[in-house]
Amino acid sequence: MTNRFYSAFDQEIWGGARKSDYRTAFQVDRDRVIHAQAFRKLQSKTQVFLSGEYDFYRTRLTHSMEVAQIGRSICHYLQTQGGPLGPDFFIDSDLVEGVCLSHDLGHPPFGHSGERTLQELMKPHGGFEGNAQTLHLLTETLYQDESSVRGMQPSRALLDGVLKYKKLHREFTSPPSNHFLYDAQSIYRDFVFGDAAIPEELLGDEELNGFKSVECQIMDWADDAAYSLNDIVDGAKAGFLTSDRIESWAAKVGVDTEGQQHLETLINVIRSDRLEAVFSEKISGFITSCRLRPRRNFMAGRTHRYAFELMVAPSAVREAQFYKQMANDLIFESPQLQQIEHKARKVLFSLWESCWRNYVEKGPRVINILPPRVGRLVEAETTVDSKARRICDWLAGLTDGMIVRTYKRLNDPDFGSLRDLS
Asked: Does the reported pTM lie above 0.70?
């Protein structure tokens, strides 16, 4: 049965036609993400705690899988609610799964600490943004070998689904630290909109960045649901969230009546060792808090992806925000994670400076730091900014383990046998 929710416009491919096979365009999108090396690398990239410290903490890979499960479940739940959706008119769960699995592909090693460091390093060269880097991978660099670097030929709907932000770096009145597209990515924004002119009322920073397809909105809420709840579970297991620390935090920041109820529930389930079971049930509540409603905008006439928007119950949004604030204050701002941020800065700055000296500001002697293929890509670029982007691509693509081993080979006299070359 044909799904009338999508048209040829939604399924149009960036970068040329694909070979036809038994799968839908959106199944191909999802499958290509799953089988990409960049997706496998997420198993060794930090979500909250440095990957590899303990086996039970979430990584970027397990987080992405959880977001994908929540995203699919939202699609199925919305379809059970009837109109406007039906058996032949529904949001494609394969597409949403592909969007969710893709959403963190561009994030660098060391989690948000690594992202902030690359933002600082790339500030003079067009900036670094995790979501823009995801788009960069999908369209230009996902597949790499000795002879070529190319993207995965994604569909318009997949590209649009990962575009949490649509404002270009150059379009801000002052250079932003995050929430932007790279200037060179204007061609993909044009493609997503089918070359339609963006209306004046959407050109503001918040308005354009908030203008998302319904699949992107589902991914965004699934991401919020996953990390607002699961960071709390991992934080409690790691000893960051104890009853005493939670109560002290609440007394310091002040909580309203609704927040007090969340607080009491959290403390009770921690004391009774039921945290994971109870918070798993909360995910179900976040899924069933979703509804669709029609909307009007300049894209609604071209695609149903903009003819509807996701509405989430305000109480669920407030609960997610409550747990995110707690996680930020008690986990991310803790001395232990601030030490990881210090490590991230030291490692990334050191590798950046070594690459810069040897591949951009060449002195009398050049050592080969980058893999030969990456080195050739840097050499082939003709501007400083484009060389910086290639170096940034390499650093962002390293896992936590790879970047630490590389740093040690360059700086630790006791590290660097032939067995350490991977």
From this structure: yes
